Amino acid sequence: MEIEQRNSGEHQTVINNESGVINVNNHHGQYTNLVGENTARIYKEISHSEQSKFIVSFVAVCLLPGLSLVADFMQIHPAINLPLWAYVAAFGVIFGVVLVGYYDNLRILVVGAPNKEECKQLYADRLFSRTEDGYIVFTHTTACIYPDCCGNIVISTPPERYNGEYSFFGKCSLAGRQHSYGIDYNFKAYPIKVDWRPMPKSNQ
């Protein structure tokens, strides 16, 4: 993909070797470093003890309504005789509260812990990696290097149709999919063409 470099306009692309932005006319080498000074945003830190408490609480939330329902069916405590919808509603409310308040914890449980000195995508623009005490949830963003653009690169959910060399993907905060990036494990963001269309659903 060829990106024209125009030297006019208020927000023209800056050529700065120290920041990793190189001549965007060089098709094979154009990139920008996503990691740099003031590019990181820390969302939260989650300790191992907090994650363990969440797992125990999550299992309890999933099991208790079912155990109460079984107890009613077996008439273990006939004094509490609630209809089925009450258990379903209670489970839905409690489960919803857990998802809203502890969604990052749930995603860590689902995605699985990264290896040491590795980071994984949690969801959307959120990444997470190990710390000595647990996990840190963060993201990186820097200026878009497409010509005459003053947006920022935002890490995005990977496209369904891509299976290749990049670790993450990004979009421009202003131009969206029109300014797409492939991001490698060193957090170098390369302007690329991306097919963002979802995979067709099976008719089965």
Structural description of this entry:
The chain crosses the membrane at residues 54-76, 82-103. This is Transmembrane protein. Keywords: Membrane, Transmembrane, Transmembrane helix. The structure is a single chain. The model is unreliable at 1-28 (pLDDT under 50). The chain has 2 domains: 17-42 and 117-191, no CATH class; 47-111. A hairpin with a 3-residue loop joins strand 7 and strand 8. The protein has 204 residues and is α+β, with helices and mostly antiparallel strands. The chain has 3 helices and 9 strands. The longest helix has 26 residues, at 48-73. Helix 1 (48-73) packs antiparallel against helix 2. Strands 1, 2, 3, 4, 5, 6, 7, 8 and 9 form a 9-stranded antiparallel sheet that branches.
List the helices and strands and how they pair.
Blueprint: E1 32-33, E2 40-47, H1 48-73, H2 84-101, H3 103-111, E3 119-123, E4 126-130, E5 134-143, E6 152-156, E7 168-172, E8 176-183, E9 188-191
Antiparallel strand pairs: 1-9, 2-5, 3-4, 4-5, 5-6, 6-7, 7-8, 8-9
Helix pairs in contact: 1-2
Strand percentage: 25-35%
The termini sit apart by: 37 Å
Helix % is 25-40%
Number of DSSP helical runs: 3
Number of structurally distinct domains: 2
Number of strands: 9
Overall radius of gyration: 23 Å
